Write a sequence for this structure.
């Protein structure tokens, strides 16, 4: 016999569809929402409704945005000669936080994953070529994740970009700031030694 | 006495997936326990000492803790990172094909020393000397052997007669070669040339480095590829997704190198 009333069970069912939320957590969250002030609930409900209807994909860089083109692509102060390729829209924020990159982006919305059946046609890879052919871009920065799939994607892009004469660079690999050398793994440390620079 | 809660295993990472905010669930191929799934906490955090040892195709030693749910990886030590394999798109793709085939053909909890040794030998060879058709076909044949599905190559699987050096057939449903006399009675059998049969027999009796000395013509390579892949698909009961990627990559690489 179910003891949870239907409106709470309905919210719990909806929440449990979210990644990382199991049935128990969903039920806890549903009860938490029940006890929250009406204004908070109203705000949450409205923001969820607006989320899907107002967010679009930028037609230039394929970042998620509320205006097309996005604020980065429409900024006249951005350097359009530098194009940074990232896997997901959420990868842009950490790069922007560094304050060191002033170019524009291209979001792939995924990475090549042969075992999962994700090929070049399943991500925004074909859309990269016309941007490079325009002649505006002089440097392509590959900022894919340092994983096997991310590296494969970067190597594939390098291969298709090679005939276009655009300079291709990749984010450096090395030791994270504040790390203890003693605990560094041999892959990262090996790359740090290999890619060491003048000081 | 209860089994110890923590244990150490040697393994090769076949795949991984993100769990929660920063965790990973990893599927390892191990010699003693077959496939093992385990969670690695905070492995996706930059600077995590676990992260680099838990990438697909990493070979390492893993310190795990048994739990009622999925086991936990608490420490990892890299044994092989295959740097040359990881630095080349074709080699990486071949390595991912090997991982997909193994993932599809092994189960959790079933020891597989021969399979583990084969995968390690193949990855080391790809890392050392690159990957060609011979490496992948040798891998497929020896994997079928290690799993107990090796095609019978000496006697006709239909009548039992010794095979003659003529064009015979290979039947996936009967599990081996059928002689030219029985060929018409085995509808799923496909013609197998004398050279292909010789190569398959040779590969079953040698190591990978020796197997690579075989210089197969393009036609023979295609024949071996099709025959072995038919066998693999028959055993696994599914197509392999990485295969179409390898085919595409090969075509694009040929186009790039011969504009």
């Amino acid at each position: 016999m179910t003891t949870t009333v239907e409106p709470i069970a309905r919210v719990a069912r909806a929440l449990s569809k979210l990644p990382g939320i199991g049935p128990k957590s969903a039920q806890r969250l549903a009860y938490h929402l029940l006890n929250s002030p009406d204004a908070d609930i109203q705000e949450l409900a409205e923001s969820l409704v607006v989320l899907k209807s107002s967010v679009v994909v930028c037609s230039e860089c394929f970042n998620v945005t509320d205006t097309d083109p996005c604020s980065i692509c429409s900024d006249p102060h951005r350097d359009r000669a530098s194009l940074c390729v990232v896997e997901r829209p959420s990868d842009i924020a950490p790069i922007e936080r560094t304050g060191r990159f002033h170019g524009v982006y291209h979001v792939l919305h995924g990475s090549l994953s042969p075992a999962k059946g994700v090929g070049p046609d399943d991500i925004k890879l074909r859309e990269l070529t016309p941007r490079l052919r325009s002649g505006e871009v002089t440097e392509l920065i590959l900022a894919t994740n340092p994983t096997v799939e991310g590296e494969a994607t970067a190597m594939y892009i390098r291969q298709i970009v090679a005939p276009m004469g655009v300079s291709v660079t990749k984010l450096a690999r090395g030791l994270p700031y504040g790390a203890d050398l003693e605990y560094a793994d041999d892959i990262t440390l090996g790359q740090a030694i290999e890619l060491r620079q003048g000081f | 006495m209860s089994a110890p809660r923590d244990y150490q295993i040697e393994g090769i990472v076949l795949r991984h997936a993100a769990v929660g905010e920063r965790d990973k669930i990893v599927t390892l191929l191990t010699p003693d326990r077959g496939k093992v799934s385990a969670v690695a906490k905070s492995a996706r955090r930059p600077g995590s000492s676990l992260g680099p040892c838990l990438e697909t195709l990493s070979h390492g030693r893993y310190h795990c803790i048994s739990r009622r749910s999925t086991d936990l990886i608490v420490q990892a030590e890299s044994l092989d990172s295959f740097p040359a394999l990881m630095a080349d798109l074709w080699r990486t793709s071949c390595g991912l094909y090997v991982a997909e085939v193994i993932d599809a053909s092994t189960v959790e909890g079933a020891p597989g020393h021969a399979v583990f040794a084969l995968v390690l030998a193949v990855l080391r060879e790809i890392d050392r000397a690159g990957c060609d058709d011979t490496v992948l076909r040798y891998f497929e044949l020896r994997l079928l052997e290690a799993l107990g599905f090796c095609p019978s190559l000496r006697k006709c699987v239909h009548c039992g007669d010794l095979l003659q050096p003529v064009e015979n057939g290979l039947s996936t449903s009967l599990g081996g070669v059928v002689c030219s006399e029985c060929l018409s009675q085995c509808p799923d059998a496909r013609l197998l040339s004398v050279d292909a049969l010789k190569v398959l027999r040779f590969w079953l009796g040698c190591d990978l480095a020796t197997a690579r000395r075989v210089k197969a013509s393009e036609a023979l390579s295609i024949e071996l590829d099709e025959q072995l892949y038919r066998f693999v698909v028959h055993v696994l009961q599914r197509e392999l997704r990485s295969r179409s990627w390898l085919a595409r990559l090969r075509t694009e690489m040929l186009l790039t190198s011969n504009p």
